[in-house]
C-alpha cells in the first residue's frame, strides 16, 4: 500500500507550512481534508484531486482512502495531527507504519505561547462532540486548562457551566484563529462573558482562582454532592472502595447495583480516560445516576438495566464493584465469568445474607476480607458523641 502523508496545517494556511510539509502536499496526487483545509492550498501549489471528507467521516473513511490506494495520498489535518486529530484515527485504521506525519504547532501550543503558560502544567479538555460538563473534573483551585472548542457556541457554553458551578470568577480567555491573519484574543471572567461573535476556530483558556469550590479528582466526594433516594455508598467507605478497585487510566469498571452512581462516577473522575458502566434495575435511580454523572462532570457514564441480564450489552470490564444485588441468583457467578484474567472484583456486604455469600466466595477464590466500621462525631445534646454507621464487610479479589 502506498504510504499516506498526513500534513498538519494551521489557521495561517499554506504560508505557515514548513518546506517538508509543502513538498508532501505538492507531491500528492489526491488531497483529503475539510473544505476549509483544501481551500487553504493554492491551486498553483498542488494539482492534486481534492476530496472533501464525507459526513459522517468514520463509517466511510477506510473505503474513501482505499479507493485511491494506488495513488500518492495526502491528508490535511488541523494543527498537530496526532493531538486530538485525524492522525490518531488513521494510525488505528491503517497502521502507524503506513503514515508519514508532518506536525504543525497545535492550538494548545499556540495558546500557551500567547498566554505565557507552561505547557506541561496545563490540562487539556476536548469538547469536540462532548458534553460541556466534561470540563468539571478539571476544575480545582489554581487550575489552568485549555478547552478545545467544537464551534463558535462553545465559549458561551463553558462560561455558563462555570457560572452555574460557582466558578464565575474564573479567568476565561478565548483565542480565535490562532496563527492566522484574523487572530483575536479576548479575556474576561466567566461571569462577565456575554459574547456570541466568535470564530468557530477557537480554544478557551480557563484560569481558576485559589478561592472557590474545591472538588478534586480524589475519591471521597461529600455525600451531599449526590442526589437520590439514599442508596449511596457513604463518603469514607466510598474512598476505601475506590482504593480497593485501584483504577488506572483507560480501564473500565462495572458498577453493579448503581444506586446513586457514586462508585462509577468517582472511578471516571480519577482520570479522563477511565470508563464505567453501571447497572441499575430501578428506572428512577437510573435517571438519578444520569443527573449525578453530568453534574459531576462524567456524562459519558454508560447506564444499563438490571444485572446480570444487561451484562451482554457492556464491554469487558477491568474491575467490577458489586454494591447491591449480590444475593440475586447467579449474580456473582455472572460477574466472575465476565471479569477478564487479572481483573479485580470488590463486593461490599452490609447484610448478614450477603456477608455469608461473601465468606463462601472468599473460601473458594481467596482474596482479602476486611470489616469497615465508620463512626462520625455528631451532637449529643450540648456535647459531641460517636454515631456508628452500618459496618461493611468488603471482599477484594484478583481473578487469576
Automatic annotation (TrEMBL):
**What one GO molecular function would you report for this record?**
protein methyltransferase activity
Q: What positions does the domain Tetrapyrrole methylase occupy?
A: 6-191
According to its UniProt entry, the protein's GO biological process terms are: cobalamin biosynthetic process; methylation
Keyword Transferase attributed: yes
> What are the alphabetically sorted keywords of the record?
Cobalamin biosynthesis, Methyltransferase, S-adenosyl-L-methionine, Transferase
Pathway involvement of the protein, from the record:
Cofactor biosynthesis; adenosylcobalamin biosynthesis
Q: Quote the SUPFAM superfamilies the UniProt record gives.
A: S-adenosyl-L-methionine-dependent methyltransferases (SSF53335), Tetrapyrrole methylase (SSF53790)
Alphabetized CDD domains for the sequence: AdoMet_MTases, Precorrin-6Y-MT
Q: Does the keyword Methyltransferase apply?
A: yes
Q: What is this protein called?
A: Precorrin-6Y C5,15-methyltransferase (Decarboxylating)
The major lineage groups are: Bacteria, Bacillati, Actinomycetota, Actinomycetes, Mycobacteriales
